[in-house]
C-alpha cells in the first residue's frame, strides 16, 4: 500500500514537467481500471464497489478534460474552468454516487440501518451547497475570475469530500473493533482528497502559490484514488452483526439543516443572496419535512416492534422479556415486591388428549381468569408453555399468598375442554423482594425468579396449591442437586462399587449367597449407604447406570469366587425404572456373556411396589429375564400391598421377608405366626424363604423353628467389599441355627 501511494506521488510530481503528464494519465487510467475490474471479478459487495468505481470515473474524466483544456499548464486553469463550467459542475454528481456506495457498505456491515439514515447525507449536501452558494461562491468567483457555476463546483468539492470523510469516520465509530481495513483506507482516502481539493481552491484563488503546489494537489488526488482502489480489493466479512438504535436522536442533522435553511431564507429576504441559495434552502426545508415524516413512521414502527417483542402472541399478555424488564426495574427501585410463578397441573394431558388447539384455548382462558384477580398495579405475564408469572410491586408474601389462593379458586371453576367439563389446578411458587438469606448475587432479578420457580416445584410435589420460598428448604434442595452432580461424576470416576452381605442357610449354617449392596466412596463424605443417594439417583435418571455398574461388578466378583472354589448365588436389586426399561434383558445377557457367570447363580430382586407400577410390563420383562436362566426374588415382601396373585402368576424363586418383621419376632406371637404362615405358603409354592435383618442368635433360632430357609443380617456379617469376601469365607465356620434340626425332625416324622 505504501509503495503504491509513493508511486502515485512520484507520478503526480512529474506534472511540473509537461512531458510527464502522459505518465500521470496512464497511472490514473490504470487505477481506474483496477477499480472498475474489482466488482466484475468478485461478487462480495459488488454493487457497493461498483458505485465507488462509477464515482471515481466521473471525477477522473471531468478532471482529465479540464486538465487537457489547460493548454500545457501543470494544473487546471481558471480559463479551463470558465470554458467548461457546466462540466466542472457535473463532477459534483460523483458525490451522491460515492455517498450511496458508502451507505451501501455500511448497510452490509450494520443490522437495522433505517431508511432515515440515508437522508442525513442528502440533507447535509443540500445544506453545504446552500451555505457555499451564499457565503463562498461570490468571493471565489471574484478571486479566480470564473463563473458562478464553476465557483460552486470549486467550493462544493472539498465540502462534499469532508462529508464523505465524516461518513467513513462514523462507520468506524459504529463498527468499533469490527472495523475492517477497507473502511480505514476509505477514511484516509477521503481525508487526503479533502486536503487536496482545499489546496486546489486556495491555489486558484492565489492564497497559496509555488511551483510544487500544483503537483502536490494532483498527487493527493492520485493517492486518494489509489487508497479507494486498495479498499475495494481488501478482504472483509460479508456481514457484521451490529445494531444502530433508531429514535428521535436521528433528527439532529435535520434540525441543523433547518436552522441553516431558515437563516439563509431570512437573510435572502433582507439582502438578496445569489440565485441558487434560496432554491437550495427551500429544498433543504422540503428534505427536513420528508425526513421528519420518515422518522415519525420509523419511531411508530419501532414502538410497535418493541410492543410485539414484549407481548405473548397467544394470550396478549406481556411475555418473559417484559417480566425481565419489570424485575430489573424492581431491583433498581429497590422497593418491596412479591413474585408468583404458577404452572398448570395436567396441562400436558390436555394437549395430548384433546390437541393443541384446545390447549391454546385453555391457556387463553387461564390468562383471562387470572387477570381478573391480579390487584391493581400488578403485572401478569406468560413466561412460556403453561407457566404464568404475577409481579406484585409494594406487596409482601402474605398478600401474595392471598392472591395465590384466589388464583386457585378461579382456576378451579369447571371449564369445558373438548366434550368434557374439567377443573383446572395449578401449583404456585412465591418469592419476595428484597432477597433474604443470601449474600450478594450476580443476577438479583434472576435469583428472584429462580426462588419462585423452586417454590413452585415444592408446591407441585405437594400436590398443588402454593408454597412460599423457604431458604432452608431451598438450601437443602440445592445441596441435593449438587450431590446429584457429584453422583454423576462419581459414576464415571469409579466411586460406586458393590458391598456384599452373606445369605446363610439356617439348617447348615453354610453361606449360600451374597447380596450386592451399592456403596458410594465419596471423596468428601466418606462411604455412603444406598439410602443416602438412591432416591436422588432415581429422580435424576441415574438408576440405570448405577444398576449396570453394580450388575457388572457383582457378576465379575461372583465369577472370581467360583474360580477359587466358592460358588455363590449373587443377588442384585432392580429399581422400578430398571425393571420397566426394555433394554434390561439385553444388559443382563451381555453381563452374563462378558463375565462367564452361570445364569442360575444370578438372582434379580424386585419389590412388590415395583410390580404394582406396571404389572403387565413388569411381567414381560421378568419372563425375558427368566429365559436367560436367571431367577427372581420378591424383595421386602409384606411391606407393600401384598397380593397372592403375584405369587400365583409370577415365576419367582424366592420370597424375601422385610426386616420390619424380624425386629418384632421375639416379643410378638402375631409376628411369629405371620412368619410361619408365610414360610409355609412359600414352601407350598416351591419358593425358598429368606429373612433379612437378623442381628442376634435368639432371632435366628426362632426363625429356624418357624421354617425359614435362609437368613441375612449383622449376626452373620456386615456388608463388605468384594476383595474381602474370600477372606471372610475362609475364616467363617458354618454353625447351624439351634432349633433348626428339631424343625427338620418334626417335618420328617
Care to give the gist of this entry?
With 749 residues, the chain is of the alpha/beta class.
What does this structure look like?
By secondary structure, this protein is α/β, with parallel strands linked by helices. The strands form three sheets. An eight-stranded mixed barrel has the order 8-9-11-12-13-14-15-16, surrounded by five helices. A five-stranded mixed beta sheet has the order 2-3-1-6-7, sandwiched between helices. Strand 2 (379-384) and strand 3 (387-393) form a beta hairpin. Helix 7 (115-144) runs parallel beside helix 11 (252-270) and helix 9 (181-205) runs antiparallel to helix 10. The longest helix has 35 residues, at 275-309. The chain is elongated. The protein starts with a helix and ends with a helix. The model is unreliable at 12-18, 238-249 and 740-749 (pLDDT under 50).
Strand order of the largest sheet: 8-9-11-12-13-14-15-16
**How far apart lie the N and C ends?**
115 Å
Largest sheet descriptor: 8 strands, mixed, barrel
Number of strands: 17
Our Rg estimate from Cα atoms comes to: 45 Å
**Number of helical stretches of at least 4 residues:** 30
Based on CA inertia axes, which overall geometry fits? elongated
Q: Calculate the mean pLDDT score and round it.
A: 79
Low-confidence stretches: 12-18, 238-249, 740-749
Structural class: alpha/beta
Give the secondary structure arrangement, pairings included.
Layout: H1 2-13, H2 21-41, H3 46-68, H4 78-83, H5 85-90, H6 94-109, H7 115-144, H8 148-175, H9 181-205, H10 213-233, H11 252-270, H12 275-309, H13 320-333, E1 337-345, H14 347-354, H15 356-371, E2 379-384, E3 387-393, H16 397-412, E4 414-417, E5 420-423, E6 425-433, H17 444-461, E7 465-468, H18 471-492, E8 496-505, E9 511-522, E10 526-528, H19 534-539, H20 543-563, E11 569-573, H21 576-579, H22 584-595, E12 602-607, H23 608-613, H24 615-627, E13 631-637, H25 644-649, E14 654-657, H26 659-662, H27 669-684, E15 688-692, H28 697-705, E16 710-712, E17 720-721, H29 722-731, H30 740-748
Parallel strand pairs: 6-7, 9-11, 11-12, 12-13, 13-14, 14-15, 15-16
Antiparallel strand pairs: 1-3, 1-6, 2-3, 4-5, 8-9, 8-16, 8-17, 9-10
Helix pairs in contact: 1-10, 2-3, 2-10, 3-6, 3-10, 6-8, 7-8, 7-11, 7-12, 8-9, 9-10, 11-12, 13-17, 14-15, 20-22, 22-24, 28-30
